[in-house]
Amino acid sequence: MRLGANMHWKIAVATLFLAAGSAAATTPPINPADLLGTWRCGPTVMQGPGFTVTVIDETTKLPNGTFTGRTRSVISAPGKAPLTLQDRSSGTWELVGDVVRSRINHLEFLSSSDPSVTKEAGQKAQDEQLAEKSVYESRILEFNGTHSRSIPVNSMYKEAAVESTCERIQQFIQAEPASRVGTIQALDTA
């Protein structure tokens, strides 16, 4: 079947509209300073075979390229009580194009809702994971200054390759030159 000139024109117009829609959804270039402050991400839900992991993460990115974070993970499985784990991390971060690269230098297991998971056992599991992988990358899909959407790059587990949404809960700005050089002021945006 041969397409008529009218059909070719409709396809061309539809293609232009789709391309224009894609361009409008594209995030403008992001500078590292745009990411400074404290961000709350999640809940991010990951589905595994017979379990679900829900993660809420709060991370503070500082101008000197360091970060601190705190994560709460809830692991749920049918017929079992949910298991809640908490940890704290710190390290360095950088923005490479539209990818945030984080290197975890320290990972501390804080707690488990299951008393049989001791602090020592939890820390051992964290140390083993950190030895296996300490650099994590996440591609920013959308960013407007106060909210972002991202997805992991080269995730260790296919179940973890899910989109995450984040909200800035505190913003940092450089102090005016009249004050101490390099001083950071926090603005609460919550």
**How many DSSP-defined strands?**
9
Shape: globular
* Poorly predicted sequence stretches spanning 5 or more consecutive residues: 1-25, 176-190
What topology, given as strand order, has the largest sheet? 1-2-3-4-5-6-7-8
Structural class: alpha+beta
Helix share of residues?
A: 10-25%
Biggest pleated sheet: 8 strands, antiparallel, barrel
Q: Give me the Rg, rounded.
A: 21 Å
How far the N terminus sits from the C terminus, by CA atoms, comes to 60 Å
Order of helices and strands: HEEEEEHEEEE
Strand content: over 45%
State the helix count. 2
Task: Quote the average pLDDT.
Answer: 82
Word description of this protein:
- This protein is α+β, with helices and mostly antiparallel strands and 190 residues long.
- The chain contains two helices and nine strands; from the N terminus they run αβββββαββββ.
- The chain has helices spanning 5-25, 119-132, and strands at residues 37-48, 51-61, 66-76, 83-96, 99-112, 135-143, 147-153, 164-174, 184-188.
- Strands 1-2-3-4-5-6-7-8 form an eight-stranded antiparallel beta barrel.
- A hairpin with a 4-residue loop joins strand 2 and strand 3.
- The chain is globular, with a radius of gyration of 21 Å.
- It starts with a helix and ends with a strand.
- 11% of the residues are buried.
Provide the fold topology.
Elements: H1 5-25, E1 37-48, E2 51-61, E3 66-76, E4 83-96, E5 99-112, H2 119-132, E6 135-143, E7 147-153, E8 164-174, E9 184-188
Antiparallel strand pairs: 1-2, 1-8, 2-3, 3-4, 4-5, 5-6, 6-7, 7-8, 8-9
